[in-house]
Specification:
22-stranded parallel sheet; 3% helix; mainly beta; 427 residues; 1 helix; 2 domains; Porin; 32 strands
Length: 427
């Protein structure tokens, strides 16, 4: 077997560019070269029908080649090549290549490669590659790659890549990358990336990125959707993440707990007072059309009683120096440093303050905005003493609430409605 491998390697390293071969209608190799009907010249013969009982070495195939274990062809294959274990073509493939374990084509390949483990094309692939583990194309892919683990394309890809774990394209992608874990593209021209964990597009424009954890792109013209984090240079459309969006600029809407837009974003720090909190500090981040709000304040009551909250808002411009803000907020009572519970931070009881508000803001010399406006408020609290054995319930609502009722059907739930007012300075 060592002699067989050495002899095969010497033949494969010959100068195949000369293509000094003859054609034959039929050959059969009985065990391994040179036990062939073409004898010692089989490596220089292109056969219409080639049958190899175990290992075959031919100049090429212009028809059909069937092998029990391995087929090897120096120049090219045009037609069908099938083997129980593997196929190797030093030159191009024009047809169908099927093997139980591997297929290798040194030149360009079209149209179908199917292997139980791996397909490798050194040049351009046109058509279909399907493998149980991995597909590799050294140059360009025009068509489809499907693998149980991964697909790799060295150049550009026009078509579809589908893998159980990862897809990697070094050049530009036009089409679809879908993977169970991660997709990576050097550049995107148009198309979609979808992965269970993350997508990376180094340059160009992607129309849709969807991932369970993160997306990274240069430009997005459509939507970027991630369970945790999105990063893009320019977004035209929707950027939505479970936690964080970051982009240089956006012509659309970012949706996340935190959305950072570097060039045309909106950020402000606000100090306010209302009928429920005599001091409230809020931070807004996002864009004018949609921003998130994070708030921490001191409500009326004991010194250890605080409130934290979050919400969404939008700005409607009324001119150069004035605007309206429409906002929705939800606050929860929090006790800090109280001596009664055993914890420094304590928020056992449900005691929520929900608020819809509109405010008119006017610029003060370009440094700050003075704002004031009405609020519509709803509080929901569990008042049963058993819900909190440390701190008794204290209402959030003022005494002029037009609806204030406690229902004894579930945790003695108190519900109150009232109209209030809120104002302050925004920097």
């Amino acid at each position: 077997m060592a002699a067989l491998l050495a002899g095969t390697s010497a033949v494969l390293n010959a100068q195949v560019e000369e293509e000094d071969y003859e054609t034959r209608p039929f050959q059969m190799t009985f065990l391994f070269p040179p036990f062939s009907t073409n004898g010692l010249d089989n490596a220089n013969m292109v056969n219409t029908i080639s049958l190899n009982l175990f290992v075959g070495l031919s100049g090429g195939v212009d028809g059909v080649e069937l092998g029990g274990f391995i087929n090897v062809d120096r120049f090219y294959v045009r037609g069908i090549q099938m083997a129980g274990f593997g196929n190797t073509v030093i030159g191009p493939l024009d047809g169908i290549q099927m093997a139980g374990f591997y297929n290798v084509v040194g030149g360009n390949a079209g149209y179908v490669q199917g292997a139980g483990f791996i397909n490798v094309t050194g040049g351009r692939q046109t058509g279909l590659q399907g493998a149980g583990f991995m597909n590799v194309v050294g140059n360009e892919l025009y068509g489809f790659q499907g693998a149980g683990f991964g697909n790799v394309v060295g150049g550009k890809m026009t078509g579809i890549q589908g893998a159980g774990f990862m897809n990697v394209t070094g050049g530009a992608v036009r089409g679809l990358q879908g993977a169970g874990f991660v997709n990576v593209a050097g550049k995107f021209e148009n198309g979609v990336q979808g992965a269970g964990f993350g997508n990376v597009a180094g340059g160009g424009t992607v129309n849709l990125q969807g991932a369970g954890f993160f997306n990274v792109a240069d430009e997005v013209n459509g939507a970027q959707l991630a369970g945790f984090f999105n990063r893009a240079g320019y977004v035209k459309g929707l950027q939505a993440a479970g936690f964080l969006n970051v982009c240089d600029s956006i012509d659309g809407v970012p949706i996340a707990l935190i959305s950072i837009v570097r060039k045309n974003g909106y950020r402000s720090l606000e100090i306010a007072a209302s009928e429920t909190q005599y001091a409230e500090l809020s931070f807004r981040i996002g864009i004018d059309k949609l921003y998130t709000i994070y708030s921490f304040g001191k409500p009326f009551g004991e010194t250890s009683r605080w409130m934290y909250g979050g919400g969404l808002g939008t700005t409607i411009g009324l001119g150069v120096n004035s605007a309206l803000n429409l906002e929705a907020m939800a606050y929860q009572e929090l006790w800090i440093g109280d001596s009664r519970p055993p914890w420094f931070l304590y928020a056992s009881r449900l005691n929520l303050h929900n608020q819809l508000r509109i405010s008119y803001a006017h610029k003060l010399g370009g440094i700050a905005d003075l704002f004031i406006g009405p609020t519509l408020n709803l509080s929901v609290a569990h008042t049963n003493p058993a819900d909190d054995i440390y701190i008794p319930w204290e209402p959030i609502q003022p005494n002029w609430a037009f609806y204030d009722v406690t229902y004894d059907t579930y945790h003695d739930t108190n519900i109150a409605f009232w109209v209030g007012v809120r104002g302050g300075l925004r920097f």
